[in-house]
Amino acid sequence: MIIRGTDRVLVMGITGKQGTFWTEHMQAYGTRVVGGTNPAKAGTLHCKVPVFATARDAMQGTGFDVAVLFIPPLMVKAAAMDAIEAGARGLVVLTEHIPVQDVMYFVAAAKERGARILGPNTAGAVTPGECFAGFMPVFNERIFRKGTIGVLSRSGSLGVLFCLNIVQAGYGESAFVGIGGDPIIGTTTRDALVALDNFPGTEAVVMVGEIGGAMEEEAADYAKTMTKPVVAFIAGGAAPKGKKMGHAGAIVMGNKGTYASKRAALEAAGVTVLDTPSDVGAALKARLGR
Amino acid sequence: MNFEEHAAKPLLARLGIAVPKGGLAQTPDEAAAIAARIGAVVVKAQVPAGRRGKAGGIKLAATPEAARAHAKAIIGMQIAGHQVEQVLIEEQMPIETELYAAVLNDPASQGPLVMFSTAGGMDIEEVAATAPDKLHLRPVDIRRGFTRADAGTLVQGLGLGAAEGKVADTLARLYEVYAAFDAELVEINPLIVTTDGRVVALDCKFVMDDSGIVRQSEIARAGTPEKLTGLEARAKAAGLKYIDLEGDIGVLANGAGLTMTTMDVVRHHGGRPANFLEIGGESYTQAKPALELLLSNPRIKSLVINFCGAFARTDVMTQGVIEAIEALQPRLPIFFSVHGTGDEEAIRMLKDRLGVTPLATMDDASKAAVEAAR
After folding, report:
1. What is the predicted pLDDT for the residue at A253?
2. Which of A68, A103, A140, A157 should one mutate to test binding to chain B, selecting the residue with the greatest count of B CBs within 10 A?
3. Can you identify the CATH homologous superfamily of domain B21-91?
4. What's the CA gap between B264 and B363, in Å, rounded?
5. Domain map of chain B by residue range?
6. Which option is the CATH number for A140-288: 2.30.130.40, 3.20.20.70, 3.30.70.270, 3.40.50.261?
7. Span B93-108, mean pLDDT?
8. Topology at the third CATH level for domain B95-220
9. H/E/C letters for each residue in B141-182?
10. Which of A45-54, A232-241, B284-293 has the highest average model confidence (pLDDT)?
11. Annotation: CATH topology of B230-373
């Protein structure tokens, strides 16, 4: 899911500390924030936008396209269902540690209603020079600069590192999509790769993956069909088996989800796989010829 | 979080699945006492690992004396790296048929998956490889759940005879166990039909979703806490994500992906990381205790600190790091790479208070740490 400047954004949990801080950043960057939610403060203004009790009320009040959730883990299911049933086109779910069965529930509901979910456990999405949703250092021009490289990442911090290296190499980003570090997420690596491949102004895609699951292997199937170059990095080659490395999704069980399996699948699909993030600029130059 | 067999079976029993009579013993005497109450028993090692029978951890005992002898042999045994500390003493069951049943979180279908097989008692991976036609899979829409009628349809025509109804009951209840207790996986292998027509869970594996533990506090107490090293336990108590590794180069970074990558890059340059330690997300204010913890590891010869701020502010993390360094005055070489939210302030603080300039890239910092550790 790529966020656009025309998208009307509803911030759920807008009055909290993080909700307030990042809403102000989103507004300053150009994100079209049209309202927020907090059942206890409905009818007031916060960050200069109206606060509603629910997403349903907000849909009737101002209308919105995308809900960004600053909501604690055990309350996300209800908030996400509220947004989906209200008719949200997209949801950005930033929260980490949501029970997996809750995630399955609202992901299934979103699929049925045709709503696109980014996350859970994502740092959000950025369209440089246009808008962003989530928590990203968008004002830092050494990290985000409008350009032609589409970036997708399971990790927020590592995504930032790649954006930094991409800008340092003289490129910029067409869009950044943080898909999240949970084992079950609404937008998969493959979904994000397809979206960036089709996003106007994108000349190459940088895919930042991790050990665990089979998403990079599925994305490799799509990469085979692409004409745009894809450069990838898989984090966790040095991680031991059977241990959760911070992200719930980053765990190698038996021979599933291994670094070797992902690297082999991507290389067979013609993707350049990096040994270290610092090599991304050189790899893009080699693939793009400039 | 894993539940050993003795902790998992009561979860099945709560929702009406039959399990054998039994009791938990920590000594041979306790084992004999339980056997005296029950009659002919099975003595089963309690460790969070499969293939206990092949390792000699499961024995039949016809008398209390035999139960005592087996318990004596099994307690203290090593199975798959775990020392056996207790044994489950259970009544022997007259087995007619062995079946397999499980419900798990399936990333491929993004929902629960019910698995059933008439080839029970063996590894399900083996069944999938050798007799895939005997493995029946049913992805579930979690909003609808998996009803008794769904269970009936799934087991129909599989030659279960008179037991079919009870097997379907058990399968539907197993889904209820999965849903009620935030399971990531609940597996009965084998699920048996006895010669007198009962359907009983002879073994059970239960893994709770770690993110579900907060709302399952009563039940979660029965789970087996992860085996932690001294440093890992200290880190957990302080709310930090720390994993001990074999090497000698300390790693501190923010965010799981960046931390894993720092480990990868250390290895890429010929070094061996000593740990995984990340202070991303809400824990970015914990840099000081995190670094103090790291520095208490005597194996560490050099240190890479790699910050890349998005949500986590590098100035706040750097402040914590400086405080820890000022307090502990460590003598080992430390190499920094600092980028992202708050980096200008962070770099200025490092220069002013420690006289240190971060290196241009994480590769440079990692390479320098690897060389310093030699």
Report:
1. 56
2. A157
3. ATP-grasp fold, A domain (3.30.1490.20)
4. 10
5. 21-91, 95-220, 230-373
6. 3.40.50.261
7. 95
8. D-amino Acid Aminotransferase; Chain A, domain 1 (3.30.470)
9. CCCCCCCHHHHHHHHCCCCCHHHHHHHHHHHHHHHHHHHHCC
10. A45-54
11. Rossmann fold (3.40.50)
Do A155 and B215 lie within an 8 Å CB cutoff? no
User: pTM to 2 decimals?
Assistant: 0.93
Q: What is the CATH number of domain A8-118?
A: 3.40.50.720
**Residue pLDDT, tens place only, B179-222:** 999 999 999 999 999 999 999 999 999 999 999 999 999 999 99
Residue ranges of chain A that CATH labels 3.40.50.720: 8-118
Residues in chain B: 374
Residues of chain A with CATH 3.40.50.261: 140-288
List the structure tokens of B136.
Answer: 């029946």
A103, A107, A161: which to substitute to probe chain B, counting the most B Cβ within 10 Å? A161
Helix, strand, coil in percent for chain A, rounding step 5 = 35, 25, 40
B110 contacts in A (CB within 8 Å)?
104, 107-108, 184
Note the pLDDT of residue A256: 66
CA gap B331, A212 in Å, rounded: 37
User: B276-320, pLDDT tens digit by residue?
Assistant: 998 987 788 899 999 999 999 999 999 999 999 877 889 999 999
Distance from CA of A208 to the nearest CA of B (A): 9
- pLDDT score of A131: 97
SS3 per-residue string spanning A22-89: HHHHHHHHCCEEEEEECHHHCCCEECCEEEECCHHHHHHHCCCCEEEECCCHHHHHHHHHHHHHHCCC
Shortest alpha-carbon distance between residue A137 and chain B (Å): 5
Contact A181 B312 (CB under 8 A): no
Q: Which of A165, A236, A240 sits opposite B245 (nearest CB)?
A: A240
Interface of B with A in 133-192 (CB under 8 A): 141-143, 179, 182, 184
Min Cα separation A97/chain B (Å)? 5
Residue written as token pair 């907090």: A38
Q: Which residues of A are catalytic?
A: 247
Tell me, what's the pLDDT at A133? 97
Q: Tell me: the pLDDT tens digits for B248-288?
A: 999 999 988 999 999 999 999 999 999 999 898 778 889 99
* Tokens (6 digits) for B267: 């290895």
- Give Rg (Cα) of chain B: 26
The arithmetic mean of pLDDT across residues B123-148, rounded, is 91
